[in-house]
Amino acid sequence: MDKLKIAGSFLKIKFHNIFSVIVKAATGYIVGSFATIQLSSIVVDNVSTQAIIGMPSETFMQYLFVALLVLFPVVLIIAFITKKKSLNADSLSNFDEINSTIDNQKPKIGVIPFENLNENSESGYLVDGIVEDLITELSMVNEISIATRKTSFSLRGKDYTSQSFKDEWGFDYIVSGSIRSSDERIRISVELSDMTDDRVVWSNKYDRVKADIFEVQDEIVTKIINSIIGNIEIASLKRANRKPTENMTSYEFMLMGRALNQKFDKEANKEAIKMLDAAIEADKTNPLPYSWKACTIGQAMFLGFRDQDEKTMSEFLGALSKANEMNDNDWNTNRILAEAHITMQDYPQAKVYATRAYKANPNNPHVMSAYGDALLRNDDVDTAIKVFKKMYSVEPIPASDTNEDRPKKALMFAYYLNNDFDNAIEIFNEVEEPDFRSWLICADIKAKQGLNYLKEKWFKEGLKTFRETDFDAEISRFHLPSKDHKSQLITFSKSVLS
User: Fold this and answer.
1) Which of 130, 140, 115, 29 is CA-nearest to residue 77?
2) Overall average pLDDT of the 169-174 stretch
3) pTM score > 0.85 for this model?
4) Is the distance from CB of 324 to CB of 13 less than 8 angstroms?
5) Is residue 395 left, alpha or beta, with left meaning phi > 0 and alpha meaning psi from -120 to 50?
6) Is 373 helix (H, G, I), strand (E, B) or coil?
7) 129 backbone dihedrals φ, ψ, rounded to 5°
8) Does pLDDT of 240 surpass 50?
């Protein structure tokens, strides 16, 4: 049963958007076919088909009917292929223009967690959740550089007007404020400060019902952006594309689930699923809890909280397909889909999903990671390196990590695939805890350079650690873009063990 659910969920993801086109094509073809048959019957009643084409009218109508039936699946296949190509082409449009902005200098903004003016601490998740939404909304604007959630929440309680703060963080602007919620109302005070001269550039107070929170967020983000870089059309803020819920209970449960997800703890992960299920129960049309549920289950598998068995995969893909069905523009859903397609070695489709995610949220480090990985597997290594460098500058230590190893390992792998061996080795020397991939490719680089590495400490320690590893299986998980490269590395690994 779980295998069938997995297959069904995967097919729903695969055929989403294309299905509606096929239905339209089928409907149009059936209507056209009936019209053709009716028109033909009128014609054959008034014209002798025997005299014109040497065929009795009954036979002609039979052949016409059979021909229409035979052509039906052909038309659907053509519609499928055409739509798939057009969807992918649309996702990859302006690809070079998007990548050209990676190196541009942009105003750097930090968001200080807003002060919770409520007397009870239970409302903290709502205050922090709204602030995180603001960070996400700002990160969708390509014209600025926004501090990540992890960085922003590490600023809580710090004196952002002090010179030491300015020297350490180098923000051009700071967003700060306070929130008070009571019953169905919410009061938000927010201000934008220019850090060069401690000047308040813009401020405002909002006293609204909670159901207006999304409109308030949009207005705050628009005012901030327009105050910094002038009036621009912020296409990413089309709320209709993000389809938020109108059910505040669902929204608040989603915020709780998302906050628990970001604790990267086994028990918190379990509780997050409960909160996200509650959000879904409150509003089954809200795509966000489905997206975050898929993210939370993926996190559980990645961190070893849950086994990657059929039941877990079925639950993961079920939530992911539902999120994709409800909103195929969601950056988080597209990021997860990109990573899933890399695992399945469908690299062209991974690039499509990763590009969608990056277009929607170019400042998010998780999106940049998926985008860079997809670019690597599609032989756009130079751009991937730029993306990984940007990712590292935005968040050197990922949210669940204690050191800078993960982004450095990603950059090292990109340099390796680009045959930039000197930079790859330089980064390897900075890695605190080498994994199997970084250890093996370092050995491969040294071998290609004709260097004797067998007695070096890093190699001997790695050989002791990884000797019992299934080298072939692990190398397959590298998802190398070239089969020849994979075969070469497997052959090299056997020589390392001999």
Assistant:
1) 29
2) 93
3) no
4) yes
5) beta
6) helix
7) -65, -40
8) no
| Stated length of the chain | 498
Q: Which helix (H) or strand (E) holds 219?
A: helix 213-229
356 contact partners, CB below 8 Å, separation of at least 6: 91, 328, 329, 331, 334
* Rounded Cα distance, 294 and 292, in Å: 5
Q: Helix or strand or coil: residue 148?
A: coil
Can you give the residue ranges of every domain in the chain? 2-91, 108-239, 420-498
Burial 454-482 (b: 16+ CB within 10 A, else e): eeeebbeebeeebeeeebeebbeebbbbe
pLDDT in tens, 252-277: 999 999 999 999 999 999 999 999 99
Token readout for 163 is 């010179």
Q: Give helix 331-343 / helix 287-302 axis angle, nearest 10°.
A: 40
Q: DSSP code of 243?
A: -
φ and ψ of 207, to 5 deg: -125, 100
Cβ atoms of 107 and 391 closer than 8 Å: no
Which one, of 94, 130, 98, lies nearest residue 111 by Cα? 130
Specify the pairing of strand 185-194 against strand 173-182.
Answer: antiparallel
Q: HSE on the CB side for 335, CA within 13 Å? A: 23
What radius of gyration do the chain's Cα atoms show?
Answer: 28
Residues 6+ away with beta carbon under 8 Å from 392: 404, 407, 408, 411
- Out of 3.40.50.10070, 2.170.16.10, 3.50.50.60, 1.10.287.180, the CATH code matching 108-239 is 3.40.50.10070
Question: What's the rounded Cα separation, in Å, for the pair 428 and 41?
Answer: 77
Distance CA 478, CA 498 (A): 22
The dihedral sign for the CA sequence 300, 305, 308, 311: negative
* 327 contacts 242 by C-beta, under 8 angstroms: yes
